[in-house]
Amino acid sequence: MVWFVLNEQRLLFAFAAIWTPFRGDRGTKSQPVPGPHEVYGFLTTSPNAVVEPIHPKAMPVILTTDEERDVWMRAPGC
In total, how many domains does the chain have? Predict the structure, then answer.
């Protein structure tokens, strides 16, 4: 396991993610749970130099400032 922080004074940050309704079955094949469900996914980007040695394909989009979080939370939906 690897623990990532911005720095010693800023241990917490937010990931950009989206929620969407899903109307199919979720769960295992032997015990499906019928929808509707609210599902989410993290948005990813190319990894930075810190993450790339651990996960070379992608990393979550990190919102690090109050302005970034505000823009993300107030942006119009698609």
Answer: 1
Beta strands in 1-78 (DSSP E): 14-15, 17-22, 26-27, 32-33, 37-42, 44-45, 59-60, 62-63
Maximum C-alpha span of the chain: 46
* Under 8 Å between Cβ of 60 and 44: yes
Q: Find the domain containing 26 and state its range.
A: 13-42
pLDDT digits (tens, 9 = 90+) for 8-65: 777 677 888 888 999 999 999 999 999 999 998 989 999 999 899 999 999 999 888 8
